[in-house]
Amino acid sequence: MATNRTFTMIKPDAVRANNIGPILSMMTEAGFRVVAMKYTHLNADTAGDFYAVHKERPFYGELVEFMSSGPIVAAILEKDNAVESFRTLIGATNPAEAAEGTIRKAFATSIGENAVHGSDSDENAAIEGDFFFSRLERF
Ligand code: ATP
Ligand code: MG
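# adenosine-5'-triphosphate complex -> structure
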């Protein structure tokens, strides 16, 4: 059964473009409640760990460099059917293929610099939330 939590990051490109506010607005207007949130900066080691599933992919080096290039906002969000519903809200990985009204359509500039992360399964949502947040940081 689908759980009601997902994990997201507002990526360095969107933070640099000063789009934290409008992106959080789209999330909360879509009915997601903030369970945990922090403004932080990944380094090459922590970004590499977070995206370790992509280690063998040709874009891994570029992805780690980009994700450690500036601060990010990390958050756990809650809504019914959170993972699937949030993937719909963010849109396709490549903004050229992202549907109208999605966060990536509005704010992503390329397949690499695509503004936001969203967990792809309940299992990964739990792992990714645990990567950033302790039990005392969830409300
Ligand atoms: P995310 O996991 O960040 O939510 P996603 O699930 O839509 O994105 P993944 O296949 O998990 O896409 O890829 C992880 C990230 O790696 C993408 O969001 C993007 O930043 C980067 N990426 C994916 N494919 C490419 C590519 N072909 N070239 C460059 N970067 C890529
Ligand atoms: Mg993914």
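# post-check
The beta strands are 5-10, 33-40, 72-78, 116-118.
The chain has a mean pLDDT of 97.
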